[in-house]
Task: structure prediction
Amino acid sequence: MSEGCVASSEGRLAEEFAVPAQVEEVKGRMAAFAARHAGEGRRVVLVTSGGTKVPLESRTVRFLDNFSSGRRGASSAEYFLGAGYAVIFLHRHRSLYPYTRRYAGVNLLDALTVSTEGETQGPAETQGGSSTRVLVDQRALPDIASVLQRYQAVKEGGLLLPVEFSTLSDYLHLLKAAAQALNAIGSKAMFYLAAAVSDFYIPASEMPEHKIQSSNGPLQISMKMVPKMLSPLVCEWSPLAFVISFKLETDGEILLARARKALDTYRHQAVVANVLDSRRGYVVIVTKTDTQELRVTDEEDRAGAEIEQRIVDALTSAHTHFITQQQA
Ligand code: PAZ
Result:
């Protein structure tokens, strides 16, 4: 274990969190993806995104969830791809996804019309059969042609590896698998841990098997603390990587102190600190030596600017510096 590492609670992961069925196969795919891209001179970032689901019953009817939409992770993944990174996108099932995120909530059937033969002058169209074409209403799907082109280029280049999770257990095991898979590429790996991961859970041994009965009266639950995965990630699984965690608070007064405490505890490279209500327009990147505020004003927001572009720009430069230092 590296100097300065706190004792890891990794053992609890195996004992208390059910291992998802495909984890070894997914780990193999992540390792092959990282090796191929690093071999071609590309850096690889693991972006985590969305919230975790925490079951209250083992035959789960009810679960705890959180607010995270996955927008931060999905838009950041796009900017990393734009900056030349290959991206492993570890995301919550059905949370926002790179490229399609712009059209979440659009009813596709309202955005498309069927045209009969002869009416083929639509702005974008796809052959639907010998005598019908589907026309796209670009007001409903703005920029669809350029977004589709970028998405297809990423797909053809095999630059995006999506991996899904739903429950907290899935997330924890897949994060470990990803960290071990990326270890082989050393400092070329970045971890961008934007997912909103539950701090609390009910261990399998204490969880009722069947649906909790309301006839038993009001429900009282006691939850345990989720082991902090940042510690084994930084100390054991991927010790040479460039690691960024996120810190969310609702009280801006405690934000920076909490971010600095996380840096002191885990000794990774940076914390991106944000407050729930202002997270789209303001974040602070906290490192051991620096505090950098990033903003997107309302006017910039209306013009289409996104704070994730600024976060990714700052962190890709810092990653370059980090790699150079490691090589010196
Ligand atoms: O997913 P989203 O775009 O709605 O929100 C992003 C976020 C607030 C989950 C992310 O920026 C973040 O802070 N993640 C870490 C949360 C935490 O402290 O656990």
